[in-house]
Amino acid sequence: MAGKSTYLRMTALITILAQIGCFVPASYASIGVVDRIFTRIGTVDDITRGYSSFMVEISEVGQILRNSTSKSLVLLDEVGKSTGSKDGASLAWAIVEYLHKIGSKTLFATHYHEISELEEKLEGVKNYHFRVIETDKGLEFDRKIKRGASNESYGIKIAEFVLPKEVVERAYEIYKELNKKDINNEVKEIIKEIQKIDINHLTPIQALNELDKIVRKCKNLKL
Prior knowledge:
48% of the residues lie in helices and 14% in strands. By secondary structure, the protein is of the alpha/beta class. Strands 1-2-3 form a 3-stranded parallel sheet, sandwiched between helices. The chain has a two-stranded antiparallel ribbon with strand order 4-5. The radius of gyration is 21 Å and the shape is globular. The model has no long low-confidence stretch (mean pLDDT 86).
């Protein structure tokens, strides 16, 4: 509803217009030449081949990864959403790393907030989000792109428009319980990492680096 899928399609169309010598709807554009445009947008199953929506999705991604180059434009929307959340997030993370290795120009839209960490790990990776404004009347989607990652998906808030109030209220209760479990698991992982540190064999710089990693992970906890 914020417009990310439209934004991906718009980027593909503008790139095609620029390469055939047309004007583009922008005050300025620095696009460069691409050899091919690959897109993976939308979810549908393929009954004739016996493919689930996830199998269709991942097969298309496989074709893209095998054929894209450093000159390609790759547009991926919600990779891994048709399977379990941990499986999906892991696949999406690995796919981003692979595209970064190839060097393709890529727009990768996702609700997996964990992947936003890649901005700190991979040179050239940048996070952007569509601004969503919360008002007394509900959510406003102003279609504005802003720098940085989003901390919210607003799935339950959007569901308020169409689902019975009782269902939505129960969904919020379950969300809070699941969030607590996630935080407890993340805290346990941080404690394990701290326990592994041998402070007697660290230089001052290494100790500061270890502390910085722990502080950043603590800041990312959704308390």
